[in-house]
Amino acid sequence: MNQEELQVAAFEIILHSGTARTEIHEAFADMREGRFDEAEAKLDHSNEEILEAHHAQTKLLQDYASGVEIKIEIIMVHAQDHLMTTMTLLEVAKEMLVLHRKVG
Which InterPro entries match (predicted)? Predict the structure, then answer.
C-alpha cells in the first residue's frame, strides 16, 4: 500500500468518525430538550457513519493480514484515535439517552 492510499484511508476514517461525532453532539442537545426520538435517530445515523469508518479500517487490517506492508504515519494514528474516541462517545450517548428518557 502506498502513502497516498494510506492517507486516503486515514481521511476516510476521519471524515466518517467526524460526521458521527457531530451527530452525537446534536443528539445530546436533543436529549437536553426532551426530543428523544430525534436524538435516537441521530445516534442511529452516527452509528452508520462509524460503520463506514470501520469499513476503511477493516480493509487496512485485511491488507495487513494478507502480507501487504503498511507504513503507519501520524495521520493514521490520528484517524484511529478519532474513531475510537467517537465509538466510546456513542456508547456513552446511548446510555445517556436511556437515562434522559427515564427522567424525562
Answer: PTS_IIA_lac/cel, PTS_IIA_lac/cel_sf
Q: How far is CA 103 from CA 3, 31, 99, in A?
A: 50, 11, 6
User: What domain range includes position 74?
Assistant: 1-101
CATH number for the domain that contains residue 14: 1.20.58.80
Domain count, the chain: 1
Catalytic annotation on 78?
A: yes
* pTM to 2 decimal places: 0.91
User: Catalytic one among 25, 78, 82, 100?
Assistant: 78
